[in-house]
Design goal:
By secondary structure, this protein is mostly helical. It contains two helices and two strands. The longest helix is centred in the middle third of the chain and has 23 residues.
Length: about 70
């Protein structure tokens, strides 16, 4: 993973692209958890949603690698 991603000639930080993807995936996971009824077991849903987003962002950044990392 490089430090920047070119989108239509505009360079965006890779972390920003991953964060947007993490928010979308967390929203999808949240919808699936709500349909499954899992939110009945969670005391404070907004805090859980933020933690879920951060966990997904961390997993995405680990999966894509670090800037400057040699294989």
């Amino acid at each position: 993973m490089t430090g920047e991603v070119a989108v239509a000639g505009v360079y965006l930080p890779a972390l920003l692209v991953l964060a947007v993807l993490a928010v979308v995936l967390a929203w999808l996971a949240s919808r699936l958890l709500a349909l499954a009824g899992a939110y009945r077991l969670i005391a404070y849903r907004p805090l859980f949603d933020v933690a879920l987003t951060i966990l997904i962002l961390g997993l995405l950044s680990l999966a894509t690698g670090h800037p400057g990392q040699t294989p």
